[in-house]
Please model this.
Amino acid sequence: MNAPDPEFPLRSIDALAFDNSFARLPARFHTRLAPWGLPEPRLVATSAAAAALIGLDPSALTAPEALQWLAGNRLPDGAESLAAVYSGHQFGVWAGRLGDGRAHLAGEVRGAGGPWELQWKGAGRTPYSRMGDGRAVLRSSIREFLCSEAMAGLGIPSTRALAIVGSDLPVQREETETAAVVMRMSPSFVRFGSFEHWAAAGDVEALQILADYVIDRHFPALREAPQPVEALLQTVSRLTGELLAQWQAVGFMHGVMNTDNMSILGLTIDYGPFGFMDGFDGGHVCNHSDSAGRYRFSHQPQVAHWNLLALAGALLPLLDGDRERARAAVDEAYGPAYDECFARLMGAKLGLAAPADEALLTGLYLLLQRNRCDYTSFFRRLSVLPAQVEAGVAGDAPVLDLCIDREAGAAWLREWRTRLAGEARPERERQASMTRSNPKYVLRNWVAESAIRAARQGEFAELHDVLHCLARPFDEQPEFERFATPPPDWADGIEVSCSS
Ligand code: AMP
Ligand code: MG
Model:
């Protein structure tokens, strides 16, 4: 395969050269089958940024033959469509075999930064669909499409979304909705649960094949390690720690952190009932189906650790059954990576060159929690406050207006300013750095919902606006000011659940 020259993007999807390394794994790893496609598909949105990753001119996605391809009605040359098998723990309980119940892997395409696997999500039943219909509704597909691209805009590791295609095909959920297909992209769709599957089956040979496949394709440097599988576990633990620190810093809640929804590359994957924090509440549960609150915001870092231990348990047969060593591989990598990354990110959000200290952060979270301050607005407004103020100056109003207890807000600001004074960074530099660390725009649930409501009426302009806005979340974009506001009253009743 030739890498497309990024200077001369491919003008047609037929110019994409497909390979499928996952298809070359032994037959028990997957089932080969074509996607079922969508009747009378219509293009809902495309991501130019995702297209660029595979050297594709975005205009190529609007051609009629591209629409049939994106909908799963036409297989690209060289594609060997398949659904992969995996298992997993759901809500802390072993769920047995799951697998790609509504995803079909088309194969991989080489981009300037390496190969990207392309996958249809929502293109019909597979042998792993269990009771499901293999479909995804327009509502959940828009959420996945927008959030994949929003996370990329924020610089947070994520699978990507190339396009979304809708149709009138009815799909039954709580009410009747319509079907859509998202073309997802990822360097790999292997999950923690992909390993758990072979461990549960007692198939050590398959476990070794999968570990070798992931190491050779994604972490070739680990081949040199004394114990490559142990090094893999350490690497996945570190990447997961860094990912969780980024989620916590930006206020992202995944909603369904089951082990089958944990990427072996430390990417955010499988967008369902996710949410971004509006009014801050550490105990917030964004998934309406999560009655016990297992995946509440403040618990996410512990859940990721629990999931890593499940992965470690699955890899035990490749680690001489040495439980202590497997646990140490997770613990020595995950905690330090999370702590270091989180302190650095929070320091940056607060305008500090040094990592944020415990006392300042404890006071901050108390303030945010007691006042239910809008999380994104709080940091964005903080970014432009001056480092020095005369007592009682009205300049702090943008932040204090977010606090019911203004006195508590003012007290915390005094603490914050003593830290700034300790560093004496030039004001312009500090403010510019804070503006680059505190997004103005995140995919608030109400923003996604307003794009969904319009799209269900066949109006895609709002969705395109949200996509464009979230591609540059740190920039002031006056035309999109409305997307930076806390939820309006009509959004009070929005509930997101596992229904997708
Ligand atoms: P999720 O929690 O959405 O990541 O899905 C968990 C498992 O259920 C995975 O194996 C999915 O492929 C499968 N699944 C979810 N929704 C459907 C559906 N509508 N049809 C078939 N399988 C599904
Ligand atoms: Mg999933």
Observations:
- The mean pLDDT is 96.
- Residues 260-261, 270 surround magnesium ion (ligand 2) (CB under 6 Å).
- Residues 193-348 form one domain.
